[in-house]
Amino acid sequence: MSARSGRLLSAMALLACMIALSGCWSRKELNDISIAAAMGIDWKDNQYLLTVQVVNPGNVSQKQGDTSAPVVVYSAKGVTLNEGVRRLTSSISRKIFFSHIRIVVLSEELAKRGIARPLDFLMRGNEIRSDFTVVIAKGNSAKDVLGVLTPIEKIPANFIFNALEVANKEWSPVAAIKLDELSKFILAEGVSPVLSGIHIYGEPSKGKLEENVKSSSPSVRLQHAGIAAFKKDKLVGWLNEKESRGYNAITDRIKRTSLHVSCPDGGVVGINIAAIRTKMRGEVKEGRMSIQLQTKIRADISSVECEIDLTDPAVLQTLNGKVEAVGKDVMRQAVAKAKRLGTDIFGFGIAIHRADPGHWKKVKDNWDERFKELDIAMDVHVSITGTGTIGESPVNKAGDGPS
Amino acid sequence: MGTHASDAMHDKQPVITEPSPQTPIAAQLPDNLRCIRDRVGHSADIIIRESSFAALGKPMAVVYTDGLVDVTVINDFIMRTLLTASAPLDGDQDPIAVVAATMLAVGEISVLTNMEQVFDHVLSGDAAIFIGGSTSALSAGTKGWKDRGVSETSVETVVRGPREAFSESIRTNTALIRRKIKDPNLWLESFKIGDVTKTDVAMMYLRGVAKDSLVAEARSRLLKIKIDGIFESSNIEEMIQDQQLTIFPTLYNSERPDVIAMELTKGKIAILVDGTPFVLVAPALFATFLKASEDYYHRFDISTLLRILRYAGFVVALSAPSLYVAITTFHQEMIPTQLLISLSAQREGIPFPAFVEALIMEGTFEVLREAALRMPRSIGSALSFVGTLVIGQAAVEAGIISAAMVIVVAITAICSFVFPSYDLSNAIRILRFPLMALAASFGLIGIFIGTLLIIMHLNSLQSFGIPYLSPFAPLELAKQKDAFLRLPFRKLFNRIRVMKDRA
């Protein structure tokens, strides 16, 4: 009994020592870390210029009387990104904590050079998660983009992230691509990545000041600007708004959007796209490759600004046809642009691969050229199901519709 | 243990534990009375009423302890009968036997043959009757002292259910159980435990429902107890529990007759101790401590949900502070970004590491809790006032403790009160601190190690030979109806019948 309890005692003493002596190797108190919300990567003087947007928690949480800026932006150069991260510590008092990054901004210059190399660092490290969105700074440096303060959202990274998510759902000329999806794009055969662009409107240096967010219409603001098309990992061109929407329609990334069609005798009808689904199918017949796109659109009337009778089924038929034409048009423009840039951003290659793996093996080495020969057949089916809560338009009653 | 204790006793009070040979009752009445007076040191509450037994013309004496007896019974049914009895007795017969058989209008009668028995009875509230010339005495059941009667439950309160609670009198308590179970199979075995206190202990069980082996085991454990005094049922609990080295309770206790009656119908054993309203139940499993009596009085759906809530409360009460410490100091990536920022803002300027912060707050809470129990009730409100101010506001406003930590400690405190059993919440109180230390040293890994150790320990426990974690481990599907869940009664009652058949 006494030998056993003696052993037990010594075991407990050893355990107690362990608690005191362990040193807690990975312990970091909350006030010893700086939470990074966004990271920007520029290419300058043949080096990476790493920019980090660090949250100032005192300002962001609901405490009164803190007049400091909600975020602080630090930059450091480095031949490798990790060097940049380490060099940052010379200008910051705390360890930067990268797990909560929402946004990574890459400069256009870097994107033209190729994004695979910097992405390797982001994917390899275990502290950085893969659920942040990657965007391209269009016309500005990533450092400038991260410096702009945004209204309502105190943390600009959250602004960029949320605005992108909302725009992707409700308006759709953007592509919210997260790191894991981007790496899939880069690694997969038969598809090239796209990334959303972001642009600063106004003078970037003014955007850094608190005054910018104190105004009701900030003079400097961030805005999403089209989709950047890549060839492999290199930026080759930008899709405009129409082409971007076409891209989203073809790749089935779109949820809702809005468009307008013209009336037979002038004026417009606003159409709200409530749901849209596209199925992509590849086909190889006697060496001839083609892609079938089947799109189903369910839409509502959102506004009527001309004299038409919505109770007439024939009118709705006509509107269906017009929406169909608009849909085909944006999709065709997107395809045309991609063919011009010579990059298959839609993943047609994957569809061909699925349809005929044998044939794919023959064409894949030269796919960006062969892609230009593809026949794209579009089948758009539109059904306008809702006409809103009023039947007859006030425009009809007023009798002064635009003529 | 026994010899050790009596050795210690020997130095102080040699009289009591002196193994005195049994003193026979002398034929001469004065000898007996002198013996009594000497042994009790002429204590004033031992009343010796000497008179003459009319029927035989012999001296007689009635001995009783004032305060423990019902004086009306002694006056009306013993003294009056004996003093006025006129029928002359046959001289050959032992007068004691005749009196016992024909004269006393008292229910409980026994014949005593030596002085030790006399003391046992007199000091427990019976009256002893001596008649000159007889070498035996008579004890009449005259127990009747002031007790506070059956009052309302004070520890285990319910919204719906019986309000009565056990009292300090073992007879009242057995009666309360009898009133719930009117079955001749409800058996009661009596013990006197404690060399000095000679406390009445009773073991009750439903014969045929409780396993014979369990009854025999409980009996033998009770008989093995060697101790000077039993003052509360927890003294018994400590002496008969399976393992001494555990912080988990392996016997259940309740002050509610309905709970005890229900446990008896489930085949368990109740151990009642005179002088305490808390009745022990054996065996008691982990699941027992998370069941409230009200679970059976409300509809099964809400009872099941509340039971699940209690299990969740167990987890929170055990691990909330340690999880907070582990996650905020090791695993910040697990916290949602907004929450992390707000936690981080609260921790700005806090001088202590999260672990020290947690220790301070948990320690303060434990001190407050203990102080609230110990202090006179009349100044209790002052304490809660200070407690609220110290914990709730001043510490946070002074920037010594973060508000989040106060919230965590408060949640932990609330959760530790959801158990119907105080004993289990004590076990959690103790375990919380090592778990916090593990969390502060190794993060979640430490918590997992700690939890693993706790589960291993729980698995090693037994209560009267039954695995402590059953019916979860080993898994008994049939008993899941009333463990984590509380299924409708129709299903539960089947189970009781099955147990009865098997026994």
Describe this structure in a few short sentences.
Chain B: Keywords: Membrane, Transmembrane, Transmembrane helix. The complex is a heterodimer of chains A (403) and B (503). Chain A is of the alpha/beta class and 403 residues long.
Sum up the structure in keywords.
heterodimer; A: 403 residues; alpha/beta; GMP Synthetase, Chain A, domain 3; four-stranded mixed beta sheet; 13 strands; 30% strand; B: alpha+beta; five-stranded antiparallel beta sheet; 18 helices; disordered C terminus
Beta strand % of chain A = 25-35%
Give the count of helical stretches of chain A: 16
How large is the count of helical segments of chain B? 18
Taken from the alpha-carbon principal axes, the silhouette of chain B is elongated
Helix content of chain B: 40-55%
Structure write-up:
By secondary structure, chain A is an alpha/beta fold. In chain A, 37% of the residues lie in helices and 30% in strands. In chain A, a hairpin with a 2-residue loop joins strand 1 and strand 2. The longest helix of chain A has 29 residues, at 313-341. The radius of gyration of chain A is 27 Å and the shape is globular. Chain A starts with a helix and ends in a 5-residue tail after the last helix. Chain B has a five-stranded antiparallel beta sheet, with helices on both faces. In chain B, helix 13 (354-374) crosses helix 15 (403-415) and helix 13 (354-374) packs antiparallel against helix 16 (422-442). The longest helix of chain B is centred in the middle third of the chain and has 31 residues, at 300-330. Mean pLDDT of chain B is 85; it is low at 1-19 and 497-503. Chain A binds chain B through residues 18-19, 22, 24, 26-31, 33, 35, 37, 55, 57-58, 60-63, 97, 99-100, 102, 127, 129, 155, and chain B through 328-330, 332-333, 337, 340-350, 353-354, 437-438, 440-443.
